[in-house]
Amino acid sequence: MVIRRIEDVPAPTKSRGFVPTMGALHEGHLSLIRASKRENEETVVSVFVNPTQFGPNEDFAKYPRMLERDTELAIGAGADWIFAPTPEEMYPRKTTFVRVSEVTETYEGASRPGHFDGVATVVLKLFNIVRPHRAYFGQKDLQQCAVIRRMVEDLNVPLKLSIEPTLREADGLAMSSRNAYLSPQERATAPLIYATLIELRDRLRDGADSAALEDARRRLSDSGFVLDYLDLLDSGTMQPTKEVGERAAIAVAARLGSTRLIDNLLLYPNAF
Ligand code: AMP
């Protein structure tokens, strides 16, 4: 069942898990739905391409939309119903924004001004509309996880967050709805991101210094990627670090042709 209007969303009567998405569902999304299904009596998936998180020159208009297929996949993975509002339903007028501090300043926040204001705003709206007990996010979007976590803590949002591991294609490329934009040649190059992250992680764990970061950046640039950033950071604050500590992660954003890909690895698993 697809619910399109906010007034039709039923109040929770049992433990409710929630998976917010922008649709074009793939196995990564389905793994979040399955995690919710395991841990809750009811699972709700939202499908909403959120205009407020796209910059003026980003892919809002061409972002893939396929609600019928998404509904089938979500229900097949264990969702009880789908919330798929229109932009007018969510934003009937100029909206109030939620602005999360510190963790939004760097990386994706710096490359995509306003992006996390849009993300935090829509996620808080969805939380208030759906009223879940638990909400599920993918580690693939590491900074988004940090932003939502900070928002939930700072604004005392009454729910529990679960961060789920990144699902990958067989060659290591992190699953993403945007992978569909890659030409066959770009698709063949794209797995180099993960290979580079793995090698860098191992070198940093073995005590390498920032020269290893430079090597990794060069390797990607030499292969045709245009790097936004590739850095070692603290996944709690999303600030750059030199410490290979418990919360350390390496994160990358790189363009291949006109497609922007992101990925990350924690230096130590289960640190998140
Ligand atoms: P999106 O539809 O891209 O906004 O993603 C919806 C949710 O799915 C977010 O919490 C993402 O982090 C998560 N997600 C996207 N790709 C993956 C992946 N490859 N593995 C696990 N979760 C993912």
Structure write-up:
Helix content is 35%, strand content 20%. With 272 residues, it is of the alpha/beta class. Strands 1-4-3-2-5-6 form a six-stranded parallel sheet, sandwiched between helices. Strand 7 and strand 8 (239-240) form a beta hairpin. Helix 5 (115-130) crosses helix 6 (142-154) and helix 8 (192-205) packs antiparallel against helix 9 (210-222). The radius of gyration is 18 Å and the shape is globular. The structure holds adenosine monophosphate. Residues 21-22, 28-29, 31-32, 137-138, 140-141, 164, 166-167, 174-177 line the site of adenosine monophosphate.
Strand residues, percent: 15-25%
Strand count, sense and barrel status of the largest sheet are: 6 strands, parallel
List unreliable stretches of 5+ residues: none
Please tally the β strands and state the result: 10
Outline type: globular
Strand order of the largest sheet: 1-4-3-2-5-6
Order of helices and strands: EEHEHEHHHEHEHHHEEEE
List cofactors, ions and other ligands.
adenosine monophosphate
- What would you report as the Rg, rounded to the nearest angstrom? 18 Å
Distance between the termini: 34 Å
Q: How many helix segments?
A: 9
- The assigned structural class equals alpha/beta
Q: Summarize the amount of helix as a percent range.
A: 25-40%
Q: What do the pLDDT scores average to?
A: 96
